[in-house]
Every structure is written in C-alpha cells, then in structure tokens.
Description:
single chain; alpha/beta; Rossmann fold; 2 domains; five-stranded parallel β-sheet; five-stranded mixed β-sheet; 12 strands; 14% strand; globular
Amino acid sequence: MDKLFERHDIYLSNVPMGYIRDFAHRINWESRLIMIKGPKGVGKSTLLLQYIKTHFDSDDRHVLYCSADTNYFATHTLTELADGFAKIGGKWLFIDEVHKYKGWSSEIKEIYDLYRDLHLVLSGSSLIQINDGQADLSRRISVYDMPGLSMREFLRLDMDLKIEPVAFCDLLEFPNKYCAYVRSVCHPLEHFPRYLRNGYYPFFFEGKRDYYPRLENVINYVIDVELTKHRNIEVGNTRSLKALLQVITQMNPYEVDIAKLSKATGISRPTTLKYLTHLEEAKLIRRLFSNLKTITDLQKPDKIYLDNSNLLYALCPVMPGIGTVRETFIANQLASSTHDVEYAGYKKGDFRIDGTYVIEVGGADKGFNQLTGQDNSFVAADDIESATLRKIPLWAFGFLY
C-alpha cells in the first residue's frame, strides 16, 4: 500500500492545475460508483487527478489514485486493493484505465457491495461495457461520457481567454447578444480554423508539432487494441477497419452507399454495418439517422461523418471539403453538449436537434430556401461574425460547453 501511495503522490505532483474543465461540474461526485468514459486522449486521467488535488489535502490517506494498467495488478487484484485500502480507513478509490483489467466489472460489483463506505471513481475507454455479461452494474453506476475540447475550452487553454458557455436555446433565441459578448473578448474567426484543425484533443498542448502523428497513434491504438479486445474484432481484420475509416474520410456525408463501401473495403454488407457501429462506439465516426427512436442493429445510416474535424484533417489524404468540415464540427459540438442530433431529411435541412430544431449549415451566403416551411429552423453560417435574424455564426456553436 505504501508503494501505491508513493505513486499517487507522484501523479498528483505532476498534474497541471491551470485549467479544470467544466465537465467536472456535470458529475455527481457523491455517487458511490462513478464511471467516466471517453476516447483516448480527451483528458480523463487529468480530470481525476485534478479533482483529488482540489478536494483533498496532499497528505490525506483516505483517498488513493491508481491506474489499472500498472505492474501492481499483475500480482494483485482490484478486490485485494479495495480490501487493504478499506482496512486502513480509505474512503475514495480512483481507478484509472479500468478497462485494461480483465474481469473488472465483477470485481467492482463485489467491492461496491462489500465496502459500503467506499466511493469508487473509475475511468475507461468509450468502448467499455457496463453490462459485459459478467456483472451488470447498470443499477449501481453513474456513467458520464467525456468529450474532447470545445472551441471555448481550446481558447481558454491556448490563449487564457475566459469566456462563459452559452445554452443552446439561449444561442438560438439571443444569438447576436452572445456573439457580441464573444467578440468583445476575441476575434472568433481568427481562431476558428485553428480549432477545426487541432483543437479537440488536449494533448495538442503537450507538443504542437507532433499533434497529427500522435493523433494517428491514438487512432491505431483504438483500432488495433481496443476494438480487438472489447468488440472481439480479429487482429487480421483491423486493416479492413482502417480501410473503411479511410474511405469515409473521402466520401460525401450525403452519399452513404453501403454497397460501395463494402466493395471498396472488401467487407460484406452486414459486416460493414457492424464495423460502422463499432467505429462510432470508439468515437472515430458519427452515424446520423432520421429517427433515433427506430434504429435497428443493421440499419443503414443516413449520413456518416468522422467524430470531429481534427480526425478529418489528420486522416484525409487531401484537404477535406469545407462543407464536410463545417458539418462535422457542428454535429460534434451539439452531440458533445448532450443534444440529440438527427438527419433532418432530404431537402429539409442538415440536422434536427432534440427532435425540435432544424439547422442548415453553409457559408456566409447561405440562405433559407432549403428551410422553407420548417418551424424552428436556423442557418449556421461560416465566415460571419454577427447573427442576423435566424442566421447564426457557425463558430458560436463551439461555445455550448
């Protein structure tokens, strides 16, 4: 246990405290069992350590942070850890990368049931399954999906600009008021292209020059390691997954042709649809459907995007089309701020949000022709600073969280 506390102290001494993401406020930390899920690289480990450093004294031994991918767990179990920690009065146990521990769910269930005074905070891959067939934790656990940085958060880290977020409904109702507020702090159009290219993953600030190689390493790790482990993809089929991802980077989101995708990658239609589901679960792509309530397991999506615009710039062999970049950005920011995003329908707008609002995305000259007859409809226009009636700057959707 002394060795674990020694490592705990080292981790805490190295965690940056300059900015703590607002995502921390979404979490009910008083829950006895918390899971923070998210793709590799969005800052889950940092968030756990920041919470500990903010809420506990440096010498407090009632709290312990450890990572499940360390050598300690080669000879010890999670249950042994919890038992020893509880016996010395431990109250808060933070276990990072828990998905790397085989059979984690059954042991966590046992710990939860045995040690009633112990709070468990876990982090894991976006592919982690709460009900994995060994232990169903769904009735016990509070799960939170952690996204990458919003444009607002990127500006906070990059330029120390302190800008308050805006609620989606407030942005739609009073767009110019909020846009004027942001413009009083910075010139958003100056920074928007940088965010689209490299603002989503916090590790950009650890080494800006090697951002894309690191991002490609993350993509390869997710496919080669996480998908093979958590979705039982055979190692020999990872090349097909990467080929499928590469084809998606070059296709028009409106032209989802599963037969064409299958032919281009040499994968059968049912397998292609299954792989698309897995890639979305891994936060590498985003599938859009016209009705989220009626999705079936092997249903063809109406649109396919990469999960965020940084992936698009990293993977596309040529400069990605600006239309695709714009739509990828707004779909990501809306979904990351916990809104339901659907395909609005042919000639009815690009997106339907929360089943109520319709948004068409385009450039500065984008008009409302496609939204004729649509209630609660808006244009998200690139290359403009101010809102006009129902025409809102595209960049403003980067300040929702």
